[in-house]
Specification:
Structural class: alpha/beta
Oligomer: single chain
Strand content: 15-25%
CATH class of the largest domain: Alpha Beta
Shape: globular
Number of helices: 13
Strand order of the largest sheet: 3-4-2-1-7-9-10-8
CATH superfamily of the largest domain: Acetylglutamate kinase-like
Length: 420
Amino acid sequence: MRIFKFGGASVKDPNAVRNVKRVLDLFPEEELVVVISAMGKTTNALESLIAAHIEQTGQKQAILNDIRSFHHEILSDLFSSSDHAIHSETENCLNEIEKILNEEPMDHYDFIYDQVVSFGEILSTKIVSAFLQDQGVDNVWLDARKLVCTDNTYREAKVNWNVTQERINSAISQSEGNKKIHLTQGFIGHTSEGLTTTLGREGSDFTAGIFAYCLDAEDVTIWKDVPGMLNADPKWFEETEKLDEISYREAIELAYYGASVIHPKTIKPLQNKQIPLLVKSFLDPESEGTIIQASNRSDGLITSYIFKRDQILISISPKDFSFIVEHNLRDIFNAFHEHRVKINLMQNSAISFSACAGGDQVRIDALINDLSADFAVKYNSGVELLTIRHYDQETIDRLTGGKEILVIQRSRQTARVVMK
């Protein structure tokens, strides 16, 4: 068994969907679980739809119509018959979204988010499954909402591994006709009460890791629009270098610091069972790509750069100018945990604690408001966080030139700079 994961860019339009088939055609004898994300920017559109619903901006119907049109245009290109069952299946999904949003807006944003945004993956997998079947690629569609069992931490659900493993193995073994391709959704799961959850933004990689772990897969391949894992994001750096092979440890470090190619939670279940992870290009599927495995090779020592924009640097001090001591840190960390704001970098002095964070502005605003009750809080918004793995001083100087450095940290292998 091998696990393939295709992200939103790999199914963003009809030609991209056709390319997925071309990739799968290269593996005619393999038994595969194929994990697919929402098409293109559908997740972003669904997030905008939820915001319009909760804030009652009057834009809800227009956004939903755009989502409907986007998927119908893909259908009309991929399927010659307007009577194909996929048309009604797609419309049923869209009607389900509309039904959820016809109810009065609730305060629990995270719950609504998971019930609505999850349909992006349901829509994409139904369409891709139907297209493959239409083209003679036999496959079975699996509903991840019935397989990946989680707690009810909406938007960042935690996996119940024992139940999930039992359900995934049962579903694969019972696949009709022993079909070789099992197609399912990334990013989504369900609670024991049957309510939909999500695993965190960009969580489809993690889903691939979950299936690999539960099925003792031979390997996992993440299909991207880049030739493999690069030492920098080409959006921010003109010159990049492909890493041919790196260790699990180096991959975890890069993912933790924000490398966009791999979701941070993906590596651990693979490392636990020594399952290799490949990052390959869906545009050039026969090229080598990157392999992540137990390795002592030195590719991981190539200098890597991770750049995060739109960060906020929060500085927290006791109101009476006393020292920051253990119980202060406990209260501060509890607040970050309660508001589910991830700390990307932290530093403390005698009388202050500073943390650089990013993500949901609503959560950050609530966090600052909460902390301000007991502490003096200052912050700089719109800052940048640069991480350099395997750095030297010349590299730091070159990349921070002309910037105001707010925080700089160095360890043996990693330099991190908050700047504006």
